[in-house]
Structures are given as C-alpha cells and as structure tokens.
Design a protein that fits this description.
heterodimer, A: mainly beta, four-stranded antiparallel beta sheet, 0% helix
Amino acid sequence: DVKVTQSSRYLVKRTGEKVFLECVQDMDHENMFWYRQDPGLGLRLIYFSYDVKMKEKGDIPEGYSVSREKKERFSLILESASTNQTSMYLCASSLGRFSGNTIYFGEGSWLTVV
Amino acid sequence: GENVEQHPSTLSVQEGDSAVIKCTYSDSASNYFPWYKQELGKRPQLIIDIRSNVGEKKDQRIAVTLNKTAKHFSLHITETQPEDSAVYFCAASIMNYGGSQGNLIFGKGTKLSVKP
C-alpha cells in the first residue's frame, strides 16, 4: 500500500516565519508534487519534481520554494509566511515520468498563518 | 495551457438517485482523465480514470464517459449511498511516452451530498 506521509497535520505560524512542510513517500516513486487546496479553487500545483535535486514550478510558485535532496523526501518551504498562505497543503507522488500514473496524496497539512 | 471546468460546484441527491458531474477541458491533446474522491478530512483518492482511446468505463456503481469531440467527460454514480458524500475532482493531462510528463490539471471540485 502506497504511503505518502506529511510530517505535520496542523501548524500555526506567525507572519514572516520560515515554514517547512515535509513529505515522505515509501514506494520509490520518481515524481513528487505539492498542491494547495482552497475552497472553491480546487487543487493548484505549486511545485513538482521528477528526480532528486530537480524541481519545476507549477501554477502558483510565488512565495514558495522546494527541496528534494533524497528521492523519497520532498519539502515545501515558505521563506516568509504570509496570511494569504493560510491553506491546506497536499503532497503527492506518482510512479514515473509518464503521465497517466495514479497520483497518491498525503493526508494534508493545515497551515494557519497569523 | 490546459484548463478544466467542473460543474456543478455542489450537488444534493436523495439516496438511491443517480448523480452526474461534468467536466470540460480546453487542450485537445489531453488524453488522460482521472476522477478523485475526497471524503471530509481525508486525502483525495483515485476512484476511476479513462484514457482517450475509450468512450466509457464502468466500475460497479460508478462510470465515466468521454466525448473527445466536445472535450467533455462526466462521472456517473448510480444508486447513490450516504457514503458517496464527498468532494469529487476531475482532472486532465497529456500522456506522453518518452517526453515530458503532462501534469494533472484539476477542476475546482463538486461537493456531493447524499441525503438518506
């Protein structure tokens, strides 16, 4: 059974803080993704990675960065958190480079920035 | 780039009735269309998908249809049950062999409520 684990389910951070959201998958998947989920806006892609040390911008990368130092781990970084980054963040992974592979999501991290 | 529109945003049905959720996509090159179900407080999970070489796919009470000419695809749930209550997301992407992967573009979601 594929497992995508996000280290924190609920976080409260102050404006201007640096925030790290960690994600680990245990199925040796090549692809990893970070999405943001907001009511009425669906799932929006922030960043993705097809390989270690590789990253590409998604649809809404502004204010975020990512790190993939190991194949199984993909971190989302908010360099200076702002209130408009209050949201649910979903990490996901899929098997390989070819689309059409099932994307497996983590449980989500609820981030509140005050 | 690809744009996926999903309707309706909310849907309420009586238990036992059918539910239909519709999505349209803009990029005629898209050829992979999955549907995800997200129960309250849980992660989205794939429930069914269809590729552009078929027009319909069924799995028990759920089915997906695809009209490539009109660029729309639909999720059909028959004999709805309270446990079908969830948010459903459609998505589209381009499946390339040997080239760069097309990322999934999601619709905004449909909140389905099944009343007992």
